[in-house]
Amino acid sequence: MSAANAAHGASEPHTSTGVDNVKMAMWTFLGSECLFFGSLISTYLLYHDTTGAGPTSADVYDIPFTSISSFVLLMSSLTMVLALSSIQQGNPRAMRIWLMATAFLGLTFVGGQIFEFTTFVEEGLTLQTSPFSSAFFVLTGFHGAHVTIGVLMLLGVVAMSSFGRLGPDSARPVEMVGLYWHFVDVVWIVIFTVVYLIP
Amino acid sequence: MSSPEVHHEESNHPGPAQYVRIAVILFVITVIEVAIYYIEPLQGVLVPMLIVFSLLKFILVVLWFMHLRFDTRVFTWLFVTGIILTFSVFAVVLLTFFLQGGAAPAAPGLDGG
Amino acid sequence: MATAAAGTDRRYFARPTAKTGWWAWMTTVDHKKIGILYGFTSFVFFIIGGIQALIMRSQLATPDGEIVSAAMYNQLFTMHGLTMIFLVVMPMGTALINFLLPLMIGARDVAFPRMNAFSYWVFLLGGLFLYSSFILGGAADGGWFGYAPLNRELPGNGMTYYSLGLQILGIASLAGAVNFIVTILNMRAPGMTLMRMPVFVWMTLVVSFLLLFALPVIGVALWQLMFDRLFGTSFYDPGAGGDPLLWQHLFWLFGHPEVYIMILPAMGIVSEVLPAFARKPLFGYPAIVFAGAAIAFMGWGVWAHHMFAAGLGPVANSAFALSTMLIAVPTGVKIFNWIGTIWGGAVRLTTAFLFAAGFVSMFIIGGLSGVTHAIVPHDAQQTDTYYVVGHLHYVLFGGSIFGLFAGLYYWWPKIFGRLLNERIGKLHFWLMIIGFNLTFGPFHVLGLLGMQRRIYRYAPGLGFDLWNLVATIGAFTIALSIVVFLVNAVVTARRGEQASADPWDARTIEWMIPSPPPEHNFDVVPVIRHRDDWWHRKYITDPKGTPSPVIAGGADAREMPPEERDNATASEDEQAHGIHLPSPSYYPLVTAVGLPIAGYGVLYQPLLLAAGFLIVLVGAFGWVLEPPAEPAGAEAV
Predict the structure, then answer these.
(1) Contact check, Cβ <8 Å, A3/C624
(2) C239 touching chain B per CB within 8 A
(3) Chain A residues with CB inside 8 Å of B72's CB?
(4) Pick from B9, B33, B86: CB nearest A197
(5) How many CB atoms lie within 10 A of CB C620?
(6) Interhelix angle for A131-162 vs A171-191, to 10°?
(7) Is there a smaller number of Cβ atoms within 10 Å at the N or the C end of chain A?
């Protein structure tokens, strides 16, 4: 998604499939990420009842709280797609506002995760408590790390846009970050259901 | 510098209004999911309903927000292959565990301290 | 356009311009140079891994060996396996893929040249990181598949180096996989449909998908192991309720596709070499392509055949036994097609051909022993004995390594502009194949006699003595053959025969361009009309299949209308602007450097971890912000 990969002002290089290289690369990478989160979720599913002497999921999960942070992340997908829409209609200023909104919502989500983690620790569920806790924290932790990286990318794009460094096809980096962001959101949809809601 | 898909996008590209509509649907589904979690009489169908609803949200985000519905089939194949592979292999893995009777039990003396 | 706003940024972000010397190699993004870097580095690791093998064979040459301690022996077999798999076979395949892929599809480079360079540097630094463990407290010693719970319990840092090192290497391979998939799908020359691509390119595509989907699974397993070792989690701690079988599943979900990742490039090479030296097209091209894809697909369904002795139960065991037997079918299809390619051909027994034929025969043996493993009661005796060590070396050495050598001999002239000496080459081949069979043939016998794998010594009187001695002699014979190869390389570099563009009278389009190729590969990107397009440009075949040289320029003079005969036309873009090549860059190297530093940080000092991340961030920033490839100064056609 770098400006440096864009062609020298003229037409995009023709590709055999007609689809641009970076977009194809992003979807390829997302296919790989399915296996990554699948492995983590399966580990969780294996260990969700292996709680040892420590708290169980029923003991610690706060469904209302997590629902709200899930909602926050879901809405961030909306702001993301509105950012893309803005730049596609040639409005970089609106794009930057929507991107910042997305980053803000993402940070709120991560903040909620951190709050949730510290609460669990206070309630006796730490990383080391049991296989259940190990699986829970590593799965949600990795997801949170992905969100954080996404926020960094969002802010990076905002900065590059502010300095006019997005290149001639400025919608493309936004689209790429968007794909990544929506994917992270979609993974959370699965995690929220499988980890929190399903007993 | 229009890529070949720009024209394609301009014709079926969802606009902001449609995106907001989808977001509203996502919100409503989430509310329903949380609601049925708490509604006692529905506990029996909780799990299948949750699966259906989260699948719906998944599809809405991927097909519309990620534009997969309007893009080349190649992307769909790349993504769907990852998903199918994930489901298949991990279903088998978890099956072998649960056929054996779950994850190995904790060593004696661990539970209850 | 970024340059308009770049202004003073250019001073900090200006791209390097060196074309020769060290700096050119450190900042290159040219797939050909990167391929050579991969090749050289993996060969050095090959020698190191070989020395490890020789030490082990010396220890085992006689009963009650006393050359190394048990602790050192554990490190030796672990690192030998890790080295040969991750630092030799995979990167040597990548070396050939890097050099040849763009040439074979008529492209000027891969889709993401800087990411390509990044992959190489991460590989080199990851390998060095893994090896630094030898002098920093001891190398990994839990076996290359590091079973739980031993992997989490082993004291020292060795297994932590294992988990971190493999993760770093995994990043290199994942980036490469994405790169090659996009390159193959998106950057083919006009007319190069998927079914006109060389089989080597097809195998690269398939292997890249295997990597794409398998690497994340072992990534998770390695993260979990690292957390267990460093942060007290209990993923694999049976005392806390963790299940060691989870490790085995996750590992082999990667590990089995991994063995196909190692063999398919060699199969691709053989599919190029045999037709060239039989002067016949590949027999059953669609079947070979489809079989390759089938092997990759079915390879996802067999992983638990590595776990037959783990207690999964008869249902699981039977299911995986069945799927394992079935996967022999597409493999057999390929073997029959290779034989069919040679049959009736005007065979030239060049060294490359000998290695390719050696591949086919040795792989058949390895495949057969593999099929015996598929029979669960047989495997119950064979597993964890020298029988399986015999099997795996027949397929990975007799298969992959022989295939890679076939590729080296075949493409050496294209890469270096000189032909490897054929007489020395044949000496190399015969010493190697004899040494190889002397070494690993006896392993099957030893396994059936009950010799366990990974033991650092054995008692006398068990019946192991003779075959171990034979195997050790064989191992040193292999070593001698490698020396012969090195002599060949040096002699060739000094006074080897200069190669023309097409010294073998071969079939695919990389042979159209000079040896070695110019930086821009093709003067004009060719338009492809056939599979084996180069062959069709050189020859017309009569209805009986006999080729005769095309007299007039251009391909298929009979079939083409005159205005199409000069069928190589520059794209509009190139006519307007000249050929654009990606500019060199520092940032792939900079970004790569951050990873092992972060690794050391995890082991020793959190500040280093932060520093590593920071370097990665800086590298990524530079990568994104540096100006694009320069239009000015590029070679015009």
Answers:
(1) yes
(2) yes
(3) 17-19
(4) B33
(5) 18
(6) 160
(7) C
Q: In chain A, which among 3-22 make CB contacts under 8 A with chain B?
A: 6-7, 9-12, 17-20
Task: Suggest the residue from A28, A89, A193, A194 to mutate for an interface test with chain B (most B CBs closer than 10 A).
Answer: A193
Q: Which two tokens stand for residue C588?
A: 């792939």
- B touches which chains (3+ CB pairs under 8 A)? A, C
Burial grade of B104 (CB within 10 A; 0-12, 13-18, 19 or more): middle
Instruction: Specify the pLDDT at position C634.
Output: 36
Question: Please, are residues A50 and B107 in contact by the beta-carbon 8 Å criterion?
Answer: no
CB–CB contact C186 A1 (8 Å)? no
Scan residues 22-81 of B and list those with Cβ closer than 8 Å to A.
Answer: 22-23, 26-27, 30, 33-34, 37, 46-47, 50-51, 53-54, 57-58, 61-62, 65-67, 71-72, 74-75, 78-79, 81
**Residues near C267 by Cβ (< 8 Å), separated by ≥ 6?**
C199, C203, C292, C334, C403
Digit-by-digit pLDDT tens for chain A (199 residues) are 343 333 333 345 578 888 899 999 999 999 999 999 999 999 999 999 999 999 999 999 998 899 999 999 999 999 999 999 999 999 999 999 999 999 999 999 999 999 999 999 999 999 999 999 999 999 999 999 999 999 999 999 999 999 988 878 889 999 999 999 999 999 999 999 999 987 7
For C43, the 3-state DSSP assignment is helix
Of A38, A80, A198, the CB nearest to B86: A38
Degrees, nearest 5: CA angle C289-C294-C297: 130
What average pLDDT values come out for chain C (637 residues) when binned by 10 residues?
Answer: 45 74 92 98 98 98 96 98 98 98 96 97 98 97 96 96 98 98 96 96 98 98 97 96 96 97 98 97 97 96 96 94 96 97 96 98 96 96 97 98 98 97 98 98 97 97 97 98 98 94 96 95 92 92 76 49 50 71 93 98 96 96 83 37
* Helices C31-60 and C70-82: angle between axes, nearest 10 degrees: 150
CB contact under 8 A, B75 and A27: yes
Task: Please tell me the distance from the alpha carbon of residue B49 to that of residue C314, in angstroms, as a whole number.
Answer: 35
